[in-house]
Amino acid sequence: MNNKIPVAVLGATGLVGQRLVRRLENHPWFELVAVTGSERSVGRPYGEMVNWRLPGDPPTSAAALTVQPSKPGLDARLCFSALPGKVAAEVEPTLAAAGHVLSSNASTFRMAPDVPLILPEVNAEHLPLVHKQAQRGWKGFVVTNANCVAIPLALSLKPLDDAFGVEQLFVVSMQAISGAGYPGVAALDIVDNVIPYIGGEEPKIESEPRKMLGTLVDDTIVDAPFRVSAQANRVASRDGHMLCVSVKLRRRATPEEAMAAMHEYRGRPQLLSLPSAAPQPLVVRMEADRPQPSRDRDTAGGMAVTVGRVRECPLFDLKYVALGHNTEGGAAGAALLNGELLAAEGYLD
Ligand code: NAP
């Protein structure tokens, strides 16, 4: 008998779901007891149905689980959702109504006024918003993590906003192929190419950081007042989204002051020593040619954001490059960290 909290992964055969399954192997607090998939997979062993895209084989204990439909009755109160948005729109409310707690990657409920959009290093204090979901008649609740560009962007902005105030920013993203799920973008479309459009991405990058850096007043999130302009591009790297950011501050800061604020920044996960937290959430590199996706995306197991090229901007105040692992810290790891935060803060009791 162990005292671990039983958990489920919804959409466990997908790219994000697989990383969640791998992260849950030997997790100190959670035990994976259920996996779900589409009709294609239901009723079959996970190890048979998953097209495992990570090195090695699926964890033995997960491979033996039978894939279940994403319906109430799963033997786990806490469910990590890696479902496509349209499926999440149907499935997540049904599960939450039945008393399950959802930590979701899907974009469906991120901007709902009663759903916290949590990046534990940035806005753990928004969690009490879940109590408002009782008004939907739900016995459980949904917590979401942000878009895989919005996460490294918000994390890099947080120490700047705290110390100097962010007024406006311009961000250009170069996003990895795995951001489109599996099989993602066709090789003939992306090899030797850059695609200057990712459907639905720019509005998410422009809105989600403002919610995360916003303030919980009574039971409403007041968005942070800064403005964001985003341009999103798909590039031919496998994993790791890179962002070129130019930011205007309310109080001027030198690149050295900005780097010190980022380097020293620690959030609630570090304070609580959550098992999946990066010891240092923002890693500042001084080399002229870093960060790079293939060299920096796995920093702290993909849970840290690497920042480099912090310098003065002739148009705004500062510019820098930030890199985050889109399917780890930007998705699977983000959902898991939210689950750990919920457990540590007593939301699963
Ligand atoms: P994916 O590789 O396409 O995987 C989708 C998963 O959903 C598969 O496990 C699939 O199961 C399952 N599924 C599809 N229809 C279903 C249904 N009707 N009922 C139950 N399960 C169903 O997608 P992904 O990249 O892992 O993304 C998952 C979610 O995370 C999406 O909401 C995405 O927007 C979000 N997200 C992704 C990233 C990223 O970088 N990839 C980053 C942040 C957030 P079968 O294999 O059994 O068909």
Structural commentary:
The chain is an alpha/beta fold and 349 residues long. The chain is 29% helix and 22% strand. The chain contains twelve helices and 14 strands. NADP nicotinamide-adenine-dinucleotide phosphate binds next to helix 1, helix 4 and helix 12.
**How many whole angstroms does the radius of gyration measure?**
19 Å
Helical segment tally? 12
> Would you count the extended β strands for me?
14
What ligands can be seen in this structure? NADP nicotinamide-adenine-dinucleotide phosphate
What are the secondary-structure elements, in order, as H or E?
Answer: EHEHHEEHEHEHEHHEEEEHHEHEEH
Distance between the termini: 19 Å
Q: Point out poorly predicted stretches.
A: none
Please summarize what this structure is.
With 349 residues, the chain is α/β, with parallel strands linked by helices.
Descriptive labels:
6-stranded mixed β-sheet, alpha/beta, binds NADP nicotinamide-adenine-dinucleotide phosphate, 6-stranded parallel β-sheet, 349 residues
What is the strand and helix layout of this fold?
Layout: E1 5-10, H1 15-24, E2 30-36, H2 46-49, H3 60-63, E3 67-68, E4 78-81, H4 85-97, E5 101-104, H5 120-123, E6 141-144, H6 150-164, E7 166-175, H7 187-190, H8 201-212, E8 215-217, E9 220-222, E10 227-234, E11 241-249, H9 255-264, H10 268-272, E12 282-284, H11 293-296, E13 305-312, E14 318-324, H12 328-344
Parallel strand pairs: 1-2, 1-4, 2-3, 4-5, 5-6, 7-10, 12-13
Antiparallel strand pairs: 7-11, 8-9, 11-14, 13-14
The structure holds NADP nicotinamide-adenine-dinucleotide phosphate.
NADP nicotinamide-adenine-dinucleotide phosphate is lined by residues 11-17, 36-38, 40-41, 70, 82-85, 87, 105-107, 148, 178-179, 181-182, 326-327, 330-331.
